[in-house]
Amino acid sequence: MNARAVLHTKQKQYDDAQSLFKEALEGSKSELGDDHPDTLETINDLGILHRQQKHYEKAEKLLAKAFEGRKIKLGVDHPHTLQSMHELAVLYKEQERYEEAEELLRRVTFSVLTRAGG
Fold first, then answer.
1. Quick one: pLDDT at residue 24?
2. Any idea what DSSP says for residue 13?
3. What is the per-residue DSSP string for 23-56?
4. Is 69 in contact with 35 (CB distance < 8 Å)?
5. What does the alpha-carbon distance between residue 27 and residue 21 come to, in Å, rounded to a whole number?
6. pLDDT tens string 21-43
7. How many CA atoms lie within 13 A of 101 on its CB side?
8. What is the crossing angle of helices 37-52 and 2-10, to 10°?
9. Which of 55, 80, 56 is nearest to 69 (CA)?
């Protein structure tokens, strides 16, 4: 269901995407728990949807929650954690919070280069 919601987001069918994300999130939370990686993925993707709709306050809350949860559950250098960090940086850039965006992007870049041996 999350994949269908992401597809609707990419097609700018935001109402359909939001309904699917909410349904997926409820199911994931009840079956897997709040801090399960699948639940955190849905939270991250819902944050992206809100960012694309320029609902920045909602987006920041969700993206920060996904980032913090992934950092704890998966580790700071895990690709999914880095994805959440990147999405939060994109949000900050869109809000013209350039220093915060730059800091996060530097951290993502450093982690990726370190993992790649560069």
1. 95
2. -
3. HHHHHHHHHH-TTSHHHHHHHHHHHHHHHHTT-H
4. yes
5. 10
6. 999 999 999 999 999 999 999 99
7. 11
8. 20
9. 80
Q: Which residues contact 66 (CB under 8 A, 6 or more apart)?
A: 40, 41, 43, 44, 47, 84, 87
Structure-token pair, residue 91: 């949000």
Quick one: residue 117, left, alpha or beta (phi over 0 = left, psi -120 to 50 = alpha)? left
Angle among Cα 10, 68, 108 to the nearest 5 degrees reads 70
> What are 22's two structure tokens?
């909410």
Torsion sign over Cα 9, 12, 16, 19:
positive
Whose structure tokens read 């939060």? Answer: 88
Tokens of 78: 């895990």
Write the pLDDT tens digit of every residue in 49-108. 999 999 999 999 999 999 999 999 999 999 999 999 999 999 999 999 999 999 999 999
Return d(Cα 46, Cα 63) in angstroms, integer: 8
CATH class of 2-116: mainly alpha
CA dist 4 and 7 (Å) reads 5
The predicted-structure confidence for 1-20, as pLDDT tens digits, reads as follows: 788 999 999 999 999 999 99
